[in-house]
Amino acid sequence: MTVQIVLVHGIRTSATMWRSQLAYLEAHGIPATAVDLPGHGSRMAEDFSLHEALHTIDAAVRSAATRGPVLLVGHSMGGLLSLAYTGGPQRPPVDALIAASCTSLPQGTGLAAYRMIARAVDRLPDRGMWLTKRILAATIPIETRSDFSAGGYALDTQDTALRALSALDLATAVARIDIPLWFVNGQYDQLRLTESLFQRLAPHAELIVVPRTTHLVTAMRPDVFNAVLRLGIATVDAAAASDPPTTRMDAREP
Known about the structure:
By secondary structure, the chain is α/β, with parallel strands linked by helices. It is 43% helix and 12% strand. The protein has helices spanning 19-27, 50-65, 77-86, 108-122, 129-139, 158-165, 170-176, 195-201, 217-220, 222-242, and strands at residues 4-8, 32-35, 70-75, 96-100, 181-186, 206-210. Helix 3 packs across helix 7 (170-176) and helix 4 runs antiparallel to helix 6 (158-165). The two termini are 32 Å apart. The model has no long low-confidence stretch (mean pLDDT 91).
């Protein structure tokens, strides 16, 4: 059976951030689904909630799992949600996970500082869009520069989503994950703060640090990120070839 890819975007952006990856996967005949989380992209008018965000991931994963083994891929907020989902008390039908730009617990002073900065930027003229465009122009290749904004920016959802993330018990969730797992970080990503903690929680996971790259690793170095996707796909293919199908929806051991 063909590996199925489910892609989960980060905060403020939408499914369009994955356009480079979707084009690559389509060219190689790999089925992929990029979801829009509540309050983002095509669902901008909806309220954000953890329940609905996790339900969105679950619906996409379970649909994909009817067609083949699932490689779940999340970036930033999408990575945090994917970790929480995969490491939840019930085993979802996920065969491998790539968690990008998300090795920082959304709690305490770190989260408070992030929210304070986001609010300050939001109070700037044009809600800071001129600053965002300048940063993207300085760091993102022209080919992928518009991917993050193509579905619109969820500015009104940002603070609500950040506050909601603090309710996630990520330490418990990450420690539960026993499937192939990759943490992918840009060298200069500000969310590498507790990278070593995540490695201790999931000692079987592989850490990939992409040089000369910031938080937006999927767009800054799309070829490198696509190579990570190839690694994930090959790992799932190899496991599927050697192991009989198993049911992954049972309750975890306490």
